[in-house]
Amino acid sequence: MSTHIEETLVLVKPDGVERNLTGEILRRIEAKGYTIVDVRMMRADRELLVAHYAEHEGKPFFEPLVEFMGSGPIVAVRLRGERVIEGFRSLAGATDPTTAAPGTIRGDLARDWGAAVQQNLVHGSDASESAARELTLWFPQS
User: Fold this and answer.
1) Which one of the listed residues 4, 52, 56, 123 is annotated catalytic?
2) Which of 83, 97, 102, 131 could be bridged to 110 by S-S, CB 3.0 to 4.6 A?
3) Where does the Nucleoside diphosphate kinase-like domain start and stop, copy by copy (predicted)?
């Protein structure tokens, strides 16, 4: 049986930190069997956020997203585990909290009023290439 151990970036967004859900989100991650390699709480500056969301620059939601992500503390988490990129995204649930399945982080915990889909508690890298790029941005000394 082959293993596919990888690392990914998870961000607990400002809405998750403000609502004191960081512990519950980390509990769910650990309960799934993933290893927290590094974790830090920080306020991201515009330069970091623009680099993180570079592929969305020019899209209508780019500026509101950067503004929201800079509005409060973020908890950045370096995770390791078997197929952790795919697994965390499944654990997180659909981007839109209204359609996120019960049992997922967003389905159970995210609020679904029209504030904007960016207020959905967590971010998880979507592929190994983006995980590598994002981990370098958020954990530059690692």
Assistant:
1) 123
2) 97
3) 5-142
Alpha carbons within 13 angstroms on the beta-carbon side of residue 5 total 6
The encoded tokens of residue 22 equal 């960081």
Reply yes or no on whether 52 is catalytic. Answer: no
Query: Domain containing 126: what range?
Result: 3-137
One-letter identity of residue 23: G
Residues contacting residue 124 through CB under 8 Å, at least 6 positions apart: 8, 9, 10, 11, 85, 88, 89, 92
Q: Give per-residue pLDDT as tens, 39-68.
A: 999 999 999 999 999 999 999 989 999 999
pTM over 0.90: yes
Q: What's the CA gap between 32 and 45, in Å, rounded?
A: 31
Q: Is 142 part of any domain?
A: no
Look at the chain and report how many structural domains it folds into: 1
